[in-house]
Amino acid sequence: MLHATNLTLARDGRTILTGITLTAHPEQVTAIIGPNGSGKTTLMAALTGDLPPTIGQITLNGDSIARLSPRHLATRRAVLAQETQVAFPFTVSEILQLGLEAGPGPADPALIPRLLAEVDLSGTAHRPIHALSGGERQRIHFARALAQARRPRSDQGPMWLFLDEPVSSLDIAHQLMVMRRARRFAAEGGGVVAVMHDLNLTAMTADHVILLSEGRLLAAGPPTYVMTDRLLSQAYRCDIRTNRTPTTGPYLLPQMAGAAV
Amino acid sequence: MVALPLAQRSQSRPQPRAVTLTLVALLLAVSVLSLGTGAAGLTPLRLFAAFTGGEPLTQAESLILYDIRLPRLAMGLMVGAALAVAGALMQGLFRNPLADPGIVGVGAGAGLGAVMAIVLGGLLPPALAALTGAHLIPFAAFLGGWIATLILTRVASSGGQTAIATLLLAGIALGAIAGAATGILTYIADDQQLRDLTFWSMGSLAGASWAKIATALPLILPALLLSPLLARALNALALGEPQAAHLGIHVERTKRLTVLATAAAAGAATAIAGGIGFIGIVVPHLLRLAIGPDHRALLPNAALLGGTLLIGADMIARTITAPAEVPIGIVTATLGAPVFLWILLRRRGLAGI
Question: How far, in Å, CA of B203 to CA of B171, rounded?
């Protein structure tokens, strides 16, 4: 279980997050949505332990993350950052090896080909990561997070996968692939928290949606509850009309934005 | 278009172990050559004969070997290894292959210390001057480098966080301050002091002695031994500071230890050998091209290649105008700068520069 209580975070005298209380459950995909500048990435940074909150506290599987050493924290959660620039020409397998070594238990290099196959990049193990395209690099870093979180559940409790805009550089096929893999991770007992921009992908994938607006939590709950015309229009400051399929819940078409109700 | 040759090169990377063995062999070869080369006619063949049961070394030859050439070889190895490892550490810390201890003010601080000792050393109380003796300049240079590093971390760190940009800018400011102070001291220096200054600033292994080695080894050896322990953390740091933390690295501790190790290695090396440039930038670069950027292989091999290169450069420095000597800093700059430019040209436009 991931708990954040009354999270307030100020940086350089500016309050970015105000009084956010939220819970994310293992075996679920929790999506954080909201407009640009609503505090999604800052909330993610607080939840992963990058930025200590000014007020409030965060517990992961019952322990305050402020009290866990980086080494221990790394055995409980893996993170895919919004953007990762690798400073030197490391090969793909060297990058994945870093994830394997950070996770719990022995690092088995035999996992590398399997991880690469999962992100549709078989055969790239010995290429320098700089030789890959932006979308391919994003999938490699996703695979690195999977390497670190190779056991979705252990006797230590669930493993957590934090994904900050995991599909931002991906084509539609790979967007679906990455989100399906995240769903499978949850189905296997792990917890997934993802910052999302694509509302349709969110509605398709998430069990639980957290809607932020101006650094505050506007709504939290299942997609059908949060992704309504009223809440989305209020958060994104734009008339949004959602629709509904019988099987997969809400969807929306940008063409319908601003259309008369 | 640039991706293909890069990928092919990386697939044909030699094994780090093979590179290490090659470097050890190279180091041994250069060492033997260096011991058998010099103004006095003691050749490798003569050494070989003496050590395989031929005519034993005369007293003069023994003196040249054990008190002049051997300490010089040991100092070259030590200083070269320290400079190369300090460069590799700094580059890992700053996530930039062009970073160097010279950039963050360690070299400038050490330089100011040395210049102060040369120009103002005469003002010391005679008792203290007698106590420090020949070690005054190296000791002052080390102290200057150390103080610069302490000020640097003090200025650049706040709330347990060290911002790399602030660190770099603080290094530039420190370099300017040290440069200005050095300039003032140069103005008030007399002719003899100016000659000493010039010689020191170009770097030299000419004053090598076992005593000098003994003053620097307690700093350089721990730094060299510490560096492999930082290798995994520096690999993770290449992905960025938050990413390194996600991978379980204690980022602040890593940065502090890396700065300490760099200051110790580079400060002490500058202290006993003066300003020797390019080893710290060229050696890690060449190794990254050969074996890749993994610090676990990079750091120990950098020590080997740095030592080998400096011994080789010293050999050139003391034979090219024999019996006179060229300051070794001129040799490393002449050999190193074109290599550096060539690397820049080849890799310009690629990520990582």
Answer: 22
Q: Do B10 and A45 make contact, defined as CB atoms within 8 angstroms?
A: no
Rounded to an integer, the average pLDDT of A28-53 is 95
Contact B6 A86 (CB under 8 A): no
Cβ atoms of residues B84 and B303 within 8 Å: yes
Candidates A82, A101, A85; CA nearest to A93 is A101
All domains of chain B in start order, with CATH? 16-25+70-347 (1.10.3470.10)
Q: Which residues of A touch B236 (CB under 8 A)?
A: 98, 102
Tell me what pLDDT residue B334 has. 87
Is residue B235 scored above 90 in pLDDT? Answer: yes
Domain boundaries, chain A: 2-83+149-236
- Rounded-to-integer distance, Cα A40 and Cα A43, Å: 5
Record the tokens describing residue A258, joined without a space: 């601003």
Q: What is the pLDDT of residues B49-80, one digit of tens each?
A: 777 777 777 888 888 888 888 999 999 999 99
Q: Which of A45, A79, A88 shows the shortest C-beta gap to B288? A: A88
Question: The complex's ipTM?
Answer: 0.93
Average pLDDT value over all residues in chain A: 93
Residues of B in contact with A99 (CB under 8 A): 247
The three-class DSSP label of residue A195 is strand
* End-to-end Cα separation, chain B, in angstroms: 18
H-assigned helices in chain B: 3-11, 16-35, 44-51, 59-63, 70-94, 106-120, 126-132, 136-156, 164-188, 191-202, 210-226, 231-237, 241-246, 251-273, 279-291, 295-319, 328-347
Give the 3-state secondary structure of residue B188: helix
Contact A89 B288 (CB under 8 A): yes
Chain B interface includes A49 (CB < 8 A): yes
Contact B333, B317 (CB under 8 A): no
CATH class of A2-83+149-236: alpha beta
Average pLDDT for residues A119-139, to the nearest whole number? Answer: 95
Burial of B124 (0-12, 13-18, 19+ CB in 10 A): middle
Out of B3, B242, B248, name the one closest to residue A71 (CB).
Answer: B248
Residue B131 pLDDT > 90: no
Which positions in chain A touch B237 (Cβ < 8 Å)?
A: 87
Mean of pLDDT values over B300-308: 96
Give kind and range of the element (H or E) at residue A64: strand A63-64
